[in-house]
Amino acid sequence: MTSLHTNPLFARLAGAERILVAGAGGGFDIYSGLPLALSLLHQGKEVHLANLSFSALAGLPPDSWAADDLAVVTPDSAAHQSYFPERTLAQWLRRHGYPATVYAFPRTGVRPLRAAYQALVELHDVDAVVLVDGGTDILLRGDEAGLGTPEEDLTSVAALAALDGIPNRLVVSVGFGVDAYHGVNHVQVLENIAALERDGAYLGAFSIPRATREGALYLDAVAHAQHHTPEHPSIVNGSIAAAVRGSFGDVRFTDRTRGSELFVNPLMSLYFAFDLPGLAARCLYLDRIEDTHLMRQVHSRIAEFRESTVSRPPRRFPH
């Protein structure tokens, strides 16, 4: 049991020496883990970054692969590709003097993703993994009114849930509220967090203050990514960054949100932390995707589960 002044997430990681921080849901998810990764680096930890990727990894040369389904992305990778969040992050890391390698996993099913994680863990003798979701759909167990976009997130959870030999496997979620535009009911998210607390799997929440070194660097990294990926900037990280800056309400930072009303608010800048095995144990369909090899299999298995399940009715915040 920790004291109130001790952060439970960092307490779990205190004895770890080689930590992998990985984006669960593709796109710019790894950026959501950047403040945490930088804090661990500043504590003297060896930190490695990885991301389930939406980038065109198949075009990378053979020497860019550390193992099957495990790409090594550097600041100079695939210069011809305009959309490549992992490379953009590697460029930002090099610019600030940090280790500038970001590993990338193709969008596969659970079995090949687990093998790729295993290869990466063995490559660096990793003793802790923190899986990061920009948003909250990673916290949904399957019977909610809407699941958002769970395929990549829960593939990542399933891949790590059965990966033995790692003392600490954790999940952090940041960007509370951003998934409302994908049909997620956030009262049900809070209900799930309460259930995880009862199970002993909830490790509390903490903010990303802009007055911290890590908060300021995160804002710089998001601005850098927006500048270098103007056609497809991250709505999630743009919203989180706006919340870190203290913005509120319908904040505009990209034409991609034209026609919708955003609700940027301080809750978006909170990290919610969880024990990964405990979170995985509450997912009602994780066993159905366990033997998948392709992402489209994950999608169809979840759809089949939803057809056979009675969903909990959505609830509204009292006001």
The tally of domains stands at: 1
Straight-line distance between termini: 36 Å
CATH class membership = Alpha Beta
Please report which band the strand proportion falls in: under 5%, 5-15%, 15-25%, 25-35%, 35-45% or over 45%: 15-25%
Helix/strand structural class: alpha/beta
The pLDDT mean sits at 95
Protein name: DUF1152 domain-containing protein
InterPro entries: DUF1152
Short overview:
The chain has 12 helices and 9 strands.
Give an overview of the whole structure.
This protein has 319 residues and is an alpha/beta fold. The chain has one domain (9-210, 268-307): Rossmann fold (3-Layer(aba) Sandwich). The chain contains twelve helices and nine strands. The chain has helices spanning 8-13, 29-32, 34-42, 85-95, 110-124, 150-161, 186-199, 213-228, 235-244, 276-281, 286-289, 295-307; strands spanning 18-23, 46-52, 65-67, 70-73, 102-105, 128-134, 168-174, 202-207, 270-275. It has a nine-stranded mixed β-sheet with strand order 3-4-5-2-1-6-7-9-8, sandwiched between helices. The longest helix has 16 residues, at 213-228. It is globular. The model has no long low-confidence stretch (mean pLDDT 95).
